[in-house]
UniProtKB/TrEMBL annotation:
Coiled coil: none annotated. InterPro entries: Gfo/Idh/MocA-like_OxRdtase_N, Gfo/Idh/MocA_Oxidoreductases, GFO_IDH_MocA-like_dom, NAD(P)-bd_dom_sf. It comes from Iningainema tapete BLCC-T55. This is Gfo/Idh/MocA family oxidoreductase. GO terms for molecular function: nucleotide binding. Residues 138-243 form the GFO/IDH/MocA-like oxidoreductase domain. Residues 5-126 form the Gfo/Idh/MocA-like oxidoreductase N-terminal domain. It comes from the Bacteria.
Length: 335
């Protein structure tokens, strides 16, 4: 009989309910507790998922009384992550945390060190890194099919949801930064950000980002949560073509070939064609949850979404915040 990992889900808001659903469906996970400060939410999920044999509590400390609990899934506001993850690791539980890992690179680094000291797995829910289109895209970019890489761009906009704990930069940018880092197999060495505030004091609603990578490649990102034109689009442009990941499209990954041939003083487009790269869709969140369970069962950390990867992304976001607060001044990031 296959062992089942006993799990507690902490926070069942907009994203936490999706994590709960996936772990309830997982064949080797056993959800034994759900924690949320809102009794009405607890009652709602109890009815929806028939959680008659699951501890439903508003008290975080109640988890210490559970026999055999092995892992905690934390989907609470980012400002609470550091203290909750610290507690969970000290109590001996593996941790899967919603992104971002924390709001401070030093705190994230400390949590990674604590997890290693406790011989526990700390993983961050960077869901896009488990999207098959992102995996396929990394293969295409690294294969050289695009020629010499020139620049990248991404747009992530929608009319809400508007967060009250972090700005649009911390809410949205982490997805596209993670994808660019994965496709390029590099991390930026210089970042810049500018933005505008309309809805809430000191929380930027619109942010423009520039990422500069070690080889000179630059990526430009547009983020906004009050734009009714919903877009989830990212591209990498090379000398021979472009690769587009458009989450809003039924065929999300497209390779668009095309380059210039110089004739005299004219540049003529040639070799133009478009190819949809077929992806056998599997829910990325489900794949991420499965990887967390596998990490525990096999004692193998997740290379693509470990706590250290989450810490690297928090470091980049912190540098972007510094640039945003300084009106777009470039901030250099240590390798």
């Amino acid at each position: 009989m296959t062992k089942k990992i006993k799990i507690a889900v902490v926070g069942i808001g907009r994203w936490g309910v999706h994590l709960l659903r996936n772990f309830l469906q997982h064949p080797t996970a056993l959800v034994v507790a759900v924690v949320d400060p809102n009794p009405e939410r607890l009652a709602a999920v109890k009815q929806q998922y028939k959680l008659d044999d699951v501890l439903l509590t508003t008290e975080w400390q109640a988890l210490k009384q559970l026999t055999g609990l092995e892992a905690v899934v934390i989907a609470t506001p980012a400002s609470t992550h550091y203290s909750l993850i610290t507690d969970a690791l000290c109590w001996g539980y593996h941790v899967l945390a919603e992104k971002p890992l924390t709001l401070d690179p030093a705190n994230s680094w400390e949590l990674c060190q604590l997890a290693e000291k406790q011989h526990l797995h700390l993983m961050v829910d960077h869901t896009y890194l488990f999207h098959l289109a992102v995996e396929r895209g990394q293969t295409v970019v690294q294969s050289g099919q695009l020629g010499d890489l020139r620049y990248g761009y991404a747009t992530r906009t929608n009319l809400g949801p508007v967060r009250q704990d972090v700005d649009a930069l911390w809410d949205l940018a982490i997805h596209d930064i993670a994808i660019f880092n994965t496709w390029l197999e590099q991390k930026p060495v210089k970042v810049q950000a500018t933005g505008s505030v309309w809805l809430q004091k000191e929380l930027a609603d619109l942010v423009w980002i520039t990422l500069t990578y070690p080889d000179g490649f630059q990526a430009y990102i547009h983020l906004c949560w009050l734009n009714p034109d919903k877009q989830r689009r990212l591209g990498v442009v090379g000398s021979s073509g472009s690769l587009i990941f458009d989450e809003m499209s039924q065929s999300p990954l497209t390779l668009i070939n095309g380059e210039f041939e110089q004739r005299g003083n004219q540049f003529i487009p040639v070799n133009q064609n478009q190819q949809v790269l077929e992806i056998n869709y599997t829910e990325p969140l489900g794949r991420m949850c499965d990887r967390f369970i596998t990490s525990i069962l096999t004692d193998t950390p997740s290379v693509i979404s470990s706590g250290w990867v989450g810490t690297q992304l928090v470091q980049i976001l912190a540098a972007l915040t510094a640039s945003l607060n300084q009106g777009g001044e470039p901030i250099f990031i240590d390798p």
